[in-house]
Amino acid sequence: MAEPLLIIENLHKKFGPIEVIKGVSMTVAKGEVACIIGPSGSGKSTLIRCVNALVPFEAGSVKVLGIEVNDPKLDKLQLRKHVGMVFQQYNLFPHRTALQNVMMAPVQVLKRDRAEVEAEAYALLKKVRLQGKEHSYPGELSGGQQQRVAIARSLAMKPDLMLFDEVTAALDPETVGEVLITIRQLAEEGMTCVLVTHEMGFAQEVANEVYFTDRGVIIEHAPPAQFFANPTDERTKSFLSKVL
Amino acid sequence: MSKPFAVLLPLPEILHHHSAPARFRLSLRHGAALLGLLLLVSVAANAADAPAQAGVFTVLARWTPLLLSGFALNILISVMSMSVGTILGAFLGLALISPNRVLSAPAWGVTQFFRNAPWLVLLFFMIFLLPYHMQIGPFTFTAPDWVKAVIGLALPVMANVAEIVRGGVQSIPNGQWEASESLGFTRRQQLWQIILPQALRRMIPPWMNLYAILTTSTTLASIVGVNDVVTLAAQVLSAEGSRPDLLAPIYGYVLVMFFIYIYPIAWATRRLETKYQVRN
């Protein structure tokens, strides 16, 4: 196994009195694809929000490339240069074109040269197969196209780790495929990915490790072949029987 | 126009004519009703006039330049209070949405105070509290009553603009904050690059609405002695010997002036509201 890129140890997260994550630990190696599955409300989305410090957590440790997230003196910008995130609702900036969406963060956050970033942005949009849509506004694009712009926007920051939060859940069934192709392409290029997903088939296909969470804990994890063929825990079995 | 004779309907019928939304909307029909009413009372008054007296229309025509100059002062007051109130309100609104309690808590207090104070009371305060000569450093300002009225009206405008800014910013989905934060934008960049450009277009209709309300409220200045159109209308009446038959035509004339000025604003506001509603 390659060196670990993301190490989560005994993570605890409360919303008010309700503990939504109760001691989660996981390790993701460089180039690995980890899929997190589980019923709604099991804390999957919160877990990956903790990884890029969108959500503060009370106890435990999250380390990305050695950067401790649970540190009051955390340099958030440093962390976010390494971690990209794609959301269920795309969250593109509706007042900017696809190209501008991709360019904004490198130009304004990293203060990079505009011409250079623009060339990269064109290349990224081409990579997610959106040539010709560079100057379209998000409102003019389909859900699947918007989500691919969102992926390109994250990639423009050249992250080492990509987080995907149920990125196909809001899409029409016929556009799910085009987004999954893009993610698979990324995985094949060696991008380290953590996906929260309900796409079991996709998890089976691209994941190196599948994690099943329920009520704030990881019930079990295994490589997909083993996970889907021989789940050990009763809760996993019952969940899989419902979704497969 | 669905009902051509709306003018003839009793007033409540006219007000509730747009049945679907309970909100009152200014429409051309109201203008037509107003004009019709003005004509009706003027013609009636004209017919009742003794032959020796000047006719209603002659009187209206004679005083139109004076009344218009008064109306111009109303517009000037409204434009100036709106400008001052908008600039102050923008800062106040930004303070309201600040995550820093030291900024947001006092801003909340100021906003609530001026939003819930009656405009007329604020006007009285400014007229009687502000001195005629104001000394700021080496400069001495002379503040006539209408300037004090501008300040008095700018205060509630400020508080309302602050609320419009806050509401506009809060209407932007949380995902926009999350996405920009995850891309490494600082809070300042998030606000100016992502949130405010989107919120601004949502703020414009309520802001224009506020301006329309402010314009009608400038007539409050007549109570504190500013020579606005309502004050002048009263002076015209007494100059004409306080003839009771002139009361309705002259004030009706003032009403029509306001309608002609405000109606296009209300119309444009409604257009923008629909436009921005459709586009997310």
Describe the protein.
The complex is a heterodimer of chains A (244) and B (280). Chain A has 244 residues and is α/β, with parallel strands linked by helices. Chain A has helices at residues 44-51, 76-82, 98-108, 114-127, 143-155, 173-188, 200-206, 224-229, 234-243, and strands spanning 4-15, 18-29, 33-37, 59-64, 67-68, 83-86, 161-165, 192-196, 209-214, 217-222. Chain A has a single domain (4-93, 161-243), classed as 3-Layer(aba) Sandwich (Rossmann fold), CATH 3.40.50.300. In chain A, the strands form 2 sheets. Chain A has a 6-stranded mixed β-sheet with strand order 6-7-8-3-9-10, sandwiched between helices. In chain A, strands 2-1-4-5 form a 4-stranded antiparallel β-sheet, with helices on one face. The radius of gyration of chain A is 18 Å and the shape is globular. Chain B has one domain: MetI-like (MetI-like fold). In chain B, α3 packs antiparallel against α9 (229-239) and α7 (174-182) runs antiparallel to α8 (187-217). Residues 1-22 of chain B have low confidence and may be disordered. Chain A binds chain B through residues 52, 54, 76-77, 80-81, 83-85, 87, 89, 91-95, 104-105, 108-110, 139, 150, 153-154, 157, and chain B through 173, 175-176, 178-186, 189, 193-194, 197-198, 279-280.
What gap, in angstroms, lies between the N and C termini of chain B? 30 Å
For the CA atoms, what is the radius of gyration of chain B? Answer: 23 Å
Reading off the top of the CATH hierarchy, the class of chain B is best stated as: Mainly Alpha
Report the structural category of chain B.
mainly alpha
Q: Low-confidence parts of chain A, pLDDT < 50 over ≥5 residues?
A: none
- Beta-strand residue percentage of chain A: 25-35%
**Overall SS class of chain A:** alpha/beta
Give me the CATH architecture of chain B, please: Orthogonal Bundle
The CATH first-level class of chain A comes to Alpha Beta
